[in-house]
Design a protein that fits this description.
heterodimer; A: mainly beta; Maltoporin, Chain A; 22-stranded antiparallel β-barrel; five-stranded mixed β-sheet; 5 helices; 37 strands; 60% strand; B: mainly beta; four-stranded antiparallel β-sheet; 1 helix; 30 strands; 5% helix; globular
Chain lengths: 647, 352
Amino acid sequence: MLSGEEPERITIEADYEPLDPASISAQVTVITAAEIEAAAPRSAAEIVAPVLGVQLQRYGGITEPSLVTIRGSSPEQVLVLVNGKKMNSSQGGGVDFSTINPDDIERIEIIRGGGSAVYGESAFGGVINIITKSGYGKEFGTIIEYEGGSFDTHALSAQMMGGLGKEKAFDFFLSFRGMFTEGGYTYPDEHAEDGEEVRENTGGLIGDASFKTGWDINREAGLRLSLSGQLHEDEKGVPGLAEFPTASAVMRDRSYQGLLSFNYLYNPIAAVTLDISGKWQSRNYTDPEYYLGAVDDTHENTAFGTELTLQRGDDFSFLLLKSTAGYNYDFEYLESTGLLTAGGDAGEGTVTRHSHSGYARSDLHFFPFPETSTGRFTITPSIRYDGHRLSYPDGGLTRDDEALSWNVGLLVPFSASKKILIKGNAGTSYRLPTFDDLFWPATAFAVGNPDLEPEEAFQVDAGLIVSPFPFLTVEGVFFNQKVTNLIQWTPGPNGQWRPGNVGEALIRGVEAEIKTLFSFVPISSFLEVKGNYSYLIARDMVEDSATYGLQLPRRPFEKANVSAALSHLKGHSFRVEGRFVGFRYITAQNTKFLPSYFILDSALKVSVTSQFAVTLAVKNLLDTSYVDIREYPVPGREISFSGRLKL
Amino acid sequence: MKGLALTAAAVIFLAGCVPQPEEPLSVRTFTDLARELYVINEQAETVSVIDLDTREMYSDAFLSGVWPNHIVFHRDSIYMVNSGDNNVTVYDESTFATLGEIYLDTGSNPWMIIHKEGTDKGYIPNFTAGDVAVVDLYTLDILERIPVGNGPEGGAYQNGKVYVGNTAWNYQEYDFDPGTVSVIDTVSDEVLTTITVEKNPQSIIAFPDLNEIHVVCTGKNGGDGSDDGRIVVVDTNTDEVTEILEIGGSPVGGSQGVDSTHKIAYLVGIGGLQSYNYETKTVLHDSADYIIIGDDPDNDLFSGVAVDETEGCLYVSHFTGDRVLVLDWEDYSLLEEIEGSDGTSSLYIFTE
């Protein structure tokens, strides 16, 4: 990792600068690799589910989609980054966290609240930045792991990492994973003879590979070149709605993405970064026995991007100024067998989108009082311009969208040791309509809307973090977001669904979190206990509608998590985690709801030797029957056992 | 520790403020009215009731199932077809208490009940199953399933026969194949013949006095700007097409939209209300001349119409506006707008 530092004053990280919740104004939760390992997750979805403000929407078993929302957003309104590069597909649908290999993750940063001025389009409800593992600064090593569990699930993974060459100037991380599940879990069904039905067509096969390499071309001069990539393929059954099962439907997803990054720390407090990224995603959906005739649709999304970032730090004695400016260009290309045509029918077609972005932001650290007593205040203004040109020749459409986003963050510590921190943010965010929203082919059941406008929002939040003792941190946050041009799909009288900019929504709430850490020196152990609670009001503000003032569907008023992790320095750990999700309305009129539920997960890890560990994990220990999405039952209790060998 | 205590207190306070969901509606909260208009609220998944004498709206009077689509009144009961739940739920008309269910099995997608007059027999076209379930409305048993065409939706009973429109969506072509109507003999419960009609026959209106059924062919649903609605007239003696009326738009009709005084049938769809004289086969208001145009003709959706012959007015549900409009049946002037629930759609008049 490149870094230059003027002691205790200002730091520039050219490659990647980890977010420190105590040093930035954004409301951030950070999950480290150690925490991930202790939780024994089978997918990235299980890692982020307990995070404050995050709501998971599971569509079924381990291979079925798991989407994430933040602060009452939709899944599409959450921007997901891998190593700073966008994962969201322009086609839409939100990022499926079941496809992200947890073994590759070094760190996850979850930023609650919109932030298009910093992160660009889609950073509407929040941002999830996934940093993958690297071999930088690590000894050469290999990890092999096998996991087997309920529903005939098997996973085999391997990682290799380390540094090579003189002074380990070349570092690498390689990872492979293959997973298979037979599926076929049961769920309650009042019409079944014994009250239970088997969820058919829930098997799947997943293959992942990823790498991350870095080369310190000239460590003294701060020159570094890095290359990373993720490859993912899966083939899984699509069970469909419980009342309309699709026993022969299969989805095949493939995605390949790469990032070439050149970093130059040309003096201790200035840096240049040039990123070139590429992504190709393909989705094929087939159902030879679909009720109304065979279906075979393929969509291919290709994207290229380049980003130039300049960073500079200035020390004016009374003021530290850290400035970042950059330019970003993205090209996205969709090729599909099913798009809305100019004549209003459906057919093959291509859509392209060129996006240019320019941005600037500063961290202004200043000292209104002696630094030793109050620390430094930080104000972080950000501004970003995005221009998008979309072309759809077959649809006879060219459209331009522009957005000027801004954000101001404030961080005020009331002591040098940051025992009391006040944070606040205000800014705007936006999200473009997806290609599905715009160009869904005209069928008997749905049709896109090329006239949709981007969703826009203005949000503010304010938080207080108190750390009265080294082992205790308490946090409370209030947030408020006003959304306009909200895009929603609604059915018409002929049974045909279509999207529209239906109007406004007001989303507000409070978030609270407490973290404690106790160490038991005599037995070389420590206990970490965390709890969080969020209260969310998400009001439909569409005037003259029957649903004005009512809670938006699928948004729980309450969500709470509690976890306790007992760890031993030799590598043993025991973790229990409880997740409560309050009732969620499923109709906009608030006439029907899904009941609240409580899930308890546990994981016991025993380090048999310094090189070999075994883990027993039980998900949904209480065998709670619940659904996140109506008509998509999820499994009950799931047990898995894994062995992990470090070489 | 003060911060900890404050946070805990705040959390407890907030938890106490959280709204709690109301129990599902299951009882009638207002008196049984002499003349009632039942309004299906497709998105709220409820049924509202309007007192036809006072025009007072009892919003969300009782819950329906998922994707409520059609109501039939029989033996003091309400039979509600829930397309998404693959069932028909039965309610007591006077109390709204749930009496029972006809479950048609997964993947059925029931569209409506075609009641054979004077009997307990009902015929339920199942859109995705491609069949018609014959049910006993008294015992709630499924008697038989009769395979018909692709995507059966609306239908009607006349002269001992049930007519069911097969919409025939073709996924490969992203278009409808030519629509057909299956003719079922209600004694043998066998398909007698199949009549080729126009695109997307979503609804059928029976005119016993004329010995005709009128097949309302919606066309390509209007979402793409199509304007190809047609009325196909079928002679029920010969089961042959005798006439086709070009009415345009994306019309949907039903028996509730028939004004027998003026011999007019009203159809709903995107943009406004259409009508034709069902006796003379004259189109009165086609897609170029909608009776009412909403604020946004391209997106305003009108989804149900019922004719109140006692008061001489039309009730029209404005799906996108969540309200029911009352029009004078002579000059179509707006008499009243009744605010409703989410997704007001089909309308059914019930009289004691």
